[in-house]
Amino acid sequence: MERERTLFLVKPDAVQRGLAGEIIKRLESRGLKLVGLKLMQVTRPIAEKHYAEHKGKPFFEGLVQFITSAPVVAAVLEGTNAIEIVRATNGLTNPLKAAPGTIRADFGLEMGRNLVHASDSPTSAAREIKIFFKPSELVDWTRDSDRWIYE
Ligand code: IDP
Ligand code: MG
């Protein structure tokens, strides 16, 4: 069993639309454990660092403008295969292609307003968690329901 941590963002469109609680609820209900959580304004330097892999692409400037346009809710989620599980819960990048039942399909229409972010690999997760959270902001805690979620 691979117990992982991943960075999750409720992007500005979802926060503005009042969907932050509902979106985080889906991940909690799935069995993922919150180990970090905060509302924050993303600055341009943070945005450019976070999205460094997309620098030079035609949508990069719009993406940075968007992610810095209003607050995000940043979270670190922990669980078995958390990285793949959260990506699957989010759905494909383009809401048009995302499967019904995923966050992006259920709440979104367009790629540039797709509500959520999640790390795509263990390397990205380690890198992105460090960008958004100080070690002291992550809480190691024992969840009493773990034995009903993990075999
Ligand atoms: P991901 O969020 O599913 O990992 P990435 O390819 O890493 O998708 O792209 C980061 C974000 O950039 C996407 O979530 C989406 O909001 C935006 N994006 C990606 N490709 C496009 C595009 O072609 N047009 C507009 N926005 C895009
Ligand atoms: Mg990505």
Describe the structure.
It is a single chain. This protein is α+β, with helices and mostly antiparallel strands and 151 residues long. The chain has a single domain, classed as Nucleoside diphosphate kinase-like domain (Alpha-Beta Plaits, 2-Layer Sandwich), CATH 3.30.70.141. 37% of the residues lie in helices and 19% in strands. It has 7 helices and 4 strands, in the order βααβααβααβα. It is globular and about 45 Å long. The relative contact order is 0.24. It binds inosine-5'-diphosphate (IDP) and magnesium ion.
Task: Spell out the key features of this protein.
single chain; 151 residues; alpha+beta; Alpha-Beta Plaits; 4-stranded antiparallel beta sheet; 7 helices; 4 strands; globular; binds inosine-5'-diphosphate; binds magnesium ion
Q: What is the compact description of this entry?
A:
The protein is built from 7 helices and 4 strands.
The Rg value, from CA coordinates, equals 15 Å
Number of helices: 7
Domains, number: 1
Bound ligands, named by name, code or SMILES: inosine-5'-diphosphate, magnesium ion
- What is the number of beta strands? 4
User: Would you identify the regions where 5 or more consecutive residues have pLDDT less than 50?
Assistant: none
Report the CATH architecture.
2-Layer Sandwich
Assign a percent range to the helix content.
Answer: 25-40%
Strand content: 15-25%
What is the CATH domain class?
Alpha Beta
Inertia-based shape: globular
